[in-house]
Amino acid sequence: MNKLSTDALPDTTVAALRSSVDSSFPRTVEELTSLVAIPGVAWAAFDPAELDRSAEAVAALVRSTGIEDVRILRVDNSGTPGGPAVVARRPAAAGKPTVLLYAHHDVQPPGARELWESEPFVAEERGGRLYGRGAADDKAGIMAHIAAFRAVTEVLGDELGVGITLFIEGEEEAGSPTFRRFLDEHRELLQSDVIVVADSSNWKVGVPALTTSLRGLVDGTIEVRVLEHAVHSGMFGGPVLDAPTLLARLIATLHDDDGSVAIDGLVSADSAVVDYPETDYRADASVLEGVRLAGTGSLASRLWTQPALSIIGIDAPSVAVSSNTLLPAARAKFSLRLAPGQDPQEAMAAVERHVNANAPFGATVTFTPGESGNPFSTDTTKPAAQMAMWALRTAWGTDAVETGIGGSIPFIADLTEVYPDAQILVTGVEDPDSRAHSANESLHLGEFSRAVLAEALMLARLDVGA
After folding, report:
1. Which residues of the chain have a pLDDT value below 70?
2. Catalytic annotation on 431?
């Protein structure tokens, strides 16, 4: 591939793409509605035939764009077949880049029906939003790819030289258990210069975003033991503290007095450029009145570029079955979100050093490492990111926000490792009101149309800029 240019598209091309997206938008929404009707959940408790039906429907939509090389592929995970992925390829012309367009067709379970205002798998438009499970996450991502490619094909015709690879995963909501194996088996098939992951969110309705950072993750368990066995608290209590009390003292050392993570050796930066008002955060996170927020630095940096540690489980008797007993052992599970630039193994080792150094009253502390995942950050000075920011600004008519996500998307770390030279862009069709994974999930149709246009503009610019 030649070096990418960042020259803008001619106004006539921009206008033609906008017209193409607008004229075909009713069809795009109709096809999205059909996809929502398929309850493809990649969990063992759900009918796998629906997941296969979902993959077939996506493959048919991709074929309707004129792409002939369309396959449904899966790999085994310890003898269990992985979710069906749709992979389609349109080879690049000489000297042109190849763009991998990722989304996923599997969805979350619907949850309790009584929480929905309409049928979860019957897309319903209300107030400019399309409601239904998967309407936003992530069947809209699939349709954004398909509709954008259709628009670029219609406008550029035979002059279109950029290569397109569609990779529509079928098990993302189940944790992508075969994702890395899939990449390893189909490394050449998915080889690309730019990877667009359409599975994130915009800043708010009317303001687009490019997700430029994701926190990594490590977790594990900490056990505190003080006795060989339980004893009567009245007979022996006083000289020795019970295990839950000492576990609580150890947990308290994980944060300093202002609530910042107090583990030495962790990467932290107050570098987020977005203003996230405290009133908005309190409302979004349902923080109770009077609760003081933890940490220092901007709220955005506390969410995106600083570590965050939570205790997500404790093993100890419940209040309902408690007795007057000194408990010999107690265990807690921690979850540590990592700032971009942090090595997960170094972070895990830092937590282990901390808990061992802070063993209270000489208690025996056992540290058991759990899962880990790498953080991610985008170099926004690179050409593909600059093109994406231009495309978002042009489609929305306002500057795009460089936003982070406090959570993790583990498979992006796999993409980074397998394709180290590819530029990875994380985009999305959701907004803060989309309620992905919750009842009444929805898609703002106006934002969806702009997301399609933005991707079409980016593909066209990648094509002419090579």
Report:
1. 1-7, 466
2. no
